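Module 6 notes. Inverse folding takes a fixed backbone as the condition and produces residue identities as the prediction. Think of it as a translation problem where the source language is geometry and the target language is the twenty amino acids. Below is one complete input and output pair. Work through it position by position during the lab.
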């Protein structure tokens, strides 16, 4: 068997790299989709003015809560989604860091959430989506993952909430309401941290 990385499909021996397959409409369409996905995952586009606003609040305070950042952005009439995108971009660029009294269970999930290319806020996932995104946690069954998220919901009530998509059924949706809990403070790092 041969495997085409673009099409994510197994073919008979040698066919995946054959000219016939590479010229096929199926392969060309999958290649276009792959290029679009890579472009969208490359990075978060943020207006430099928003970066400047974030730098300003971090420059004037030593350690800022996420709620303080939102309040500062809103004083300029800027939406919370823009503030979140700016904050995540600068975390990825490592121009800022977060510190605080947080457990490794929360931090593992936070790092994964930050890496999601396009994120709607609040982020809601089905059990299946969460199981696929958080495979690195090492749970063999989705029910174990739900138990873990239930413990996190009790430990960090603003961070996660579990709900059911059907009335009277057990929880099957996970919503990350407040991605950055109040125990976290953001600080300048790298070039932003220079005096």
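Target side of the pair, the amino acids:
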């Amino acid at each position: 068997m041969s495997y085409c990385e673009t099409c994510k499909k197994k073919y008979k021996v040698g066919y995946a790299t054959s000219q016939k397959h590479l010229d096929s409409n199926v392969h060309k369409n999958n290649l276009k989709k792959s290029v679009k996905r890579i472009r969208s995952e490359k990075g978060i586009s943020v207006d430099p003015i928003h970066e400047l606003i974030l730098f300003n609040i971090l420059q004037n305070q030593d350690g800022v809560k996420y709620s303080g950042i939102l309040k500062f952005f809103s004083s300029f009439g800027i939406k919370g989604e823009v503030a979140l995108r700016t904050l995540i971009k600068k975390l990825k660029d490592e121009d800022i860091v977060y510190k605080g009294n947080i457990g490794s269970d929360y931090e593992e999930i936070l790092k994964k959430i930050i890496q999601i290319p396009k994120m709607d806020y609040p982020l809601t996932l089905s059990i299946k989506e969460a199981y696929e995104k958080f495979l690195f946690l090492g749970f063999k069954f989705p029910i174990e993952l739900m138990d873990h998220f239930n413990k996190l919901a009790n430990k960090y009530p603003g961070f996660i909430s579990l709900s059911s998509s059907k009335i009277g059924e057990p929880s099957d949706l996970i919503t990350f309401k407040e991605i950055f809990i109040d125990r976290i403070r953001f600080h300048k790092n790298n070039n932003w941290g220079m005096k």
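Reference fact for the lab report: Residues 99 and 122 are 22 Å apart (CA to CA).
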